[in-house]
Amino acid sequence: MLQPERTVAELKELRSLTADEKGAQRLCWSPVWAKARAWMAEKLAALPVEVVVDEAGNRWATLRGQSPREVWIGSHIDSVPNGGWLDGCLGVLAALEVLRRIAAEGTPPVTVRLVDWADEEGARFGYSLMGSRAAAGSLNLDDIRHLKDKEGNPLPDVLKAQGVDINRMLEAHQQFANGAAYLELHIEQGPVLESLNLPLAVVTGTKGVNRKLIRFTGQAAHAGSTPMNLRRDAFAAAARWALEVREIGRRHDGVCTTGNVTNTPGIYTAVAGQTDITLDQRHLDPKVLATMLAEAQEASQRVAAEEKVGVEWIDVFGTPPVPFHPTLIELGAEAIREVSGTEQRLPSGPLHDATSVAAAGVPTVMLFVQSLRGLSHTNDEDTKIEHVEMSVRALDRLASKTIEWVRQQG
């Protein structure tokens, strides 16, 4: 029998084990993350499942079914520093409760696997979805070999300490051999559901991302002796451009964020000779995303010319929009209607492990549950308890529907 209240209790138990007064501290590959995984291993030990950790550090708990075709349910247990009590771990612990219910009913018609992906957040080394990308076959090892954390620890050494050989990470793709569907429950991390007074939504896909560093290069000069009309102020160009980028996002119903600005020499008494400014653009339509990028680039060239500075674009990260499976979206909508009497469909602005899985060709869908005040990646993150329990029931309904869909496919 499904017990959503047990999921709430276990979420609170995990919080007490791995959080401090500032919030969750389950930074991936850290001792606190390892403690969370050991705690999770104790929960899984009570079930008739086979547990393995793949070459990329992802943990799989397998309940063998009558068919080798697999339905996966999961998320990630790692957190950002000072994170909330639900981000990621809700999906893992809800999957655990669903797995308990299925196991209690005997051998399922298809194999069911719980997966806890490693390093979804990318908070320590700046590379998101590391475990799921490795398993999906989309991780380029050359992109991560050189990474270090803020203390200077090289990623290969940190991985080795946790039993992961960076040179073998792509072997995790073996786990995808029989994947027939992937389901993931997550908090929304945004304000839309609360603004609509709705508890749940089925996710239609994850938005594509353009992430760039833009460098405006002018001339550093003395703040007191350089007339305004003779300055080549890199920051002035960046500031003008940032305001134009904001309008690009609004115009295309997308999002554009300039989240960090660094001036050089960066002192009170000097005009900025160089300004590095970051850009993050997101949209569900790949054509619109490309248009947003082109307009941002054109705006930078125009502003740079007017301010008599140079401009350079540096690639940082990018991923195309990833739509989820239409049949699973419909099954997710059905599950939500059955438990809440409402229906809502939303795209996801943040990336999730589901993005990696869907891009690899495994039919995928996500469910969102309302986030209070739209907050996440903070200790202030919260969701109403009744909505948490409702989300577990919706995930369970979706799992049953998906298992039957996979069974019918043979």
Can you count the helices?
11
From the spread of the alpha carbons, the general shape counts as elongated
What CATH architecture label of the largest domain applies?
3-Layer(aba) Sandwich
* CATH fold-level assignment of the largest domain: Aminopeptidase
Report the radius of gyration as a whole number of Å: 23 Å
Distance between the termini: 27 Å
Class from helix and strand fractions: alpha+beta
Average residue-wise pLDDT: 97
- Kindly provide the name of the CATH class of the largest domain: Alpha Beta
User: How do the helices and strands follow one another from N- to C-terminus?
Assistant: HEEHEEEHEHHEHEEEHEEEEHEEHEHEH
How many domains, as an integer? 2
Number of beta strands = 18
Spans of at least 5 consecutive residues with low confidence: none
| Helix percentage | 25-40%
CATH fourth-tier homologous superfamily of the largest domain: Zn peptidases
Q: Profile the largest sheet.
A: 9 strands, mixed
Range of strand content: 15-25%
